[in-house]
Amino acid sequence: MNLAAIFPFDYPLPTAFYLFWYVLTLVIHVVFMNYVLGGITYLGLSTLAGRPNRNQLALMLRDWMPFAIGVAITAGVAPLLFIQILYQKAFYTANLLLFHRWMIILPILIVGFYLAYLLKTKMVANWPYIVRVLLGLASFACFAFIAYSWTENYLLSMETQQQWSEFYGSDAIVYQNKAILPRLGVWFLGAFATMSMLVGWQLWYKGQHQNVKLVSIIAIVGLLASGACGFVYKGMVSDHFPSGPFLYIGIACGGVQLLLWLAQLTRPKFSGMLLSLLSVFCPLAIIAMTVVREKVRLAAIDLEPLYPLH
User: Fold this and answer.
1) Based on the structure, what is the number of domains in the chain?
2) pTM for this one?
3) First CA to last CA distance, the chain
């Protein structure tokens, strides 16, 4: 097998060291962030039902959401440090070009964090419908904005010096790229499969099986929708998209997850065996697709001038 196809062995040792730990810490962050994205989306949109959602899934997510957000934030510190060391100019340039919209991520994250605490309180259930809807959608909007902004940053960091200059000269606040929505869809919609696996374990442990079909359907729809977005996104960045083993591993693990959730859908209770298998293939899929994510960026950014700095 060609070692150059195995990430990150085709890089100098210091660069490979940072790439390895960046991907590893990013995967840990993604696992918890997926719980937050999938959970906060379900909770936010469920407020449109017209009455407080008190099913076991909603109660579990509402109860654990503030803690999950805290863990996701903590787990995000390490990859944020590694990405600055690795990409330096490309990452910083994307930050500066996004300017106020990039700076506002932190206050929006704080607002979303405290909204999760507010939604957890029992008194909110007695508030008027319109207030509950606004709170639920606001919490969803906070994390959707953060996810969108990081997608913008990722794609903008891959542009050339000329494209950066043109964007700066245009005085545009919003970065326009047709690949933003499909790439966002890959990770945002894929989050539902991870969230379903994690909350499935929580409900299994509590012996709460009322929403087993709902959780399974959420995971299945998320996997299919994420795969569709991935297909579209691949066509848009075909010049940089790798075709190595990690792509096939990610697709295969996604397919296995789909089969496992279809099997779970036919059962009246959460299966410990199926959840255990999902706990293997879901992280493997995240690892593989995170490597693909970085290989796309590495194909667009020349790291060689940074080797001495690493």
Assistant:
1) 1
2) 0.93
3) 27
